[in-house]
Please model this.
Amino acid sequence: MRQAQIVQSVELSTIAHATDDLEKTQVALTRLLPDPLKPRQVFTRRYLQGHYGNPIVTFEAHLTDPADIQEFTTFLRQQLSQSDKSNIARQLDRHTDDDGNLYIRIDKQKILLGTTELSQEDAVRVKMKFTKFSGKATALMAEYLEL
Model:
């Protein structure tokens, strides 16, 4: 597997609303990282205001170092169930865009419970940018998902 070559960057992001515990959100995000990245402060927080004046906090991380990308993509692939990987592969058109990005949403609450599971609600968004210089992006994504 040539992950370090085929994935150019990784972005992780989530939103915490006024009713969310920011520290639990940080814990969930940290659990989504492989051990070598956990001690580093890879997530930045932005404090925003919602339409009705409610506080919203966004958490974002951008991984561009090839070693960090390799660590994260390997870890995520190991954490996802074969069923989830198969679901992504079967519906690849719903998880990708024309720019070579793969989008995966992982249940924030399940991460706190120690599992990595796909979800559309209350999720951590993972965006992986696949290089177009190593082949067709969708073929590289399928290779990443080990199909």
Notes: The longest helix spans residues 66-79. The chain has a mean pLDDT of 89.
